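Because showing beats explaining, we think one record worth quoting, sequence and backbone structure tokens together, and here it is:
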Amino acid sequence: MSKTVLVVDDSASVRQVVTIALRGAGYDVIDAVDGQDALRKLDGQRVHLVISDVNMPNMDGITLVGEIRKQAAYRFTPIIMLTTESQEEKKRQAQAAGAKAWVTKPFQPAQMLAAVSKLIAP
């Protein structure tokens, strides 16, 4: 059975690149346009990993990480932040909220897949 990854980014092109890379590596993908959309789509379904942007409208990625961690079903789900942000302060906030890894855009799909496979195997 393949593993499911939730991809959260307000950029359609980024979601597309990430989705293509993940599906090519054998993962199932659910995508969401922002944190609120992501929380609606989680809705108790089995998700093995979350990849989220930091800067998004409606609900940013760091707030999303905190909201995901409040739900028992997703308390230990690994979360990767995929972002243009490289500020140490943002990284600290994301780690404090519960993010496990940080990939900076622009990224190589192979680099992102390496981070994913360290946290979950396909």
